């Protein structure tokens, strides 16, 4: 091989090495450029962010919104955006327990785990038993500052006994309805703990609850409006509320300052559970990411702005400079279990007379009979007694009305006239007009057994903690359905299967007239822990109607 060939070969090797170096540099440059773009959030994008639907309680909604607004949905590490709806926890619990919930959220942030349990109790199987607490707020007794100073505050640390015990006799104490507000549930537990230390715990617990019940309100906001010199009527001087709500009041109403009195031992706090409901995998991933964001320490500023604590009870941000609240860490107490929840709510229902009544009125042909000496039909006196009873009920009582005969609605012996609604909602919507418009059928028979079973099944499925639940049936006859449907033995057996001692649901009969089978009504009512009230004289229906209502609504079956 000549020198010329060697030199030519060396030149080709040199060129090849230069090409390799240039290609390597180019590849490295491209790789660096690609990595650099991935590292630069401004350049990284998510083409189609997942939508995460969240329903939040009003207290926590500003915090949820603050965290959500700080997200970048186009960041490949995020790739989701939050759409939030604000709604009361009690309302959401009812919506999720409906047979076919409309547009259920992927995430529900209630103000208390109480509502998760209430929703599940009502049939919302998709709601989890618990959720990650993303904030907390102790439940306190808000005491007007002048009243606190009269009790040696701030030199003395006050407790609930100073407010609801003998030392609080001069106070006009309010109460939050525990059937619609978790603050009320915590207050019931606090009262029971305070009275448990007395010589007669049961009697003293009832005495305190009777003192609180006349001033019961649907929520703390209603009670705030009744405090101070601007209140209409005697001002409320103390009432249970959350620490968050008290701080908000003191920031907005400088002339009506309230002192937070903490229960000892502590009662359940508002724990704001982050509950994830069943959804698609991409949405579930987004829900998990957002939960991580809500639990980060950077949320502290948003919590502090809204008067909330960290989930572990530490005060977020800079503690308040005054001494109307406690600024040390107050470790939260868990929400009550189902058994304890039912117990305290049933006690309150017996005191406050907050009820859920499924009323069922006989409209069979015999109800057209005229009562001798009165000039009125049995139907007329029944409706008059019913209207009088409604006017005596607590406005928070929930009432629904069915009528029954035989084959009244197709093959069914019964028909709904008014769905179960609070009286303060149904009366403005013409409930009394619908009641007055009820007519007896010309020749209808009495389908008592099928109707009693259907009404009881419906009431059992919709049983509500915090209320006295009962089925009230008014009739002037006995079952007369030509052998159709269930017989007495089957009815009693089915009723027996549905009994739950922790969730009482009595059937109360109002039987009137000579055609009533007293033994029949007694057997059915006793199978449910109820009672039958009977009179052969239809003109006495008013008397037995009111006697039955007062006995059962007052919690004395």
UniProtKB/TrEMBL annotation:
Domain VWFA: residue ranges: 356-549
Residue ranges crossing the lipid bilayer per the database entry: 14-35
Pfam families for this protein: SBP_bac_11, VWA
Superkingdom: Bacteria
InterPro entries from the UniProt entry: VWF_A, vWFA_dom_sf
Keywords associated with the record: Membrane, Transmembrane, Transmembrane helix
Protein name (Swiss-Prot/TrEMBL): Substrate-binding and VWA domain-containing protein
Organism, as annotated: Kibdelosporangium philippinense
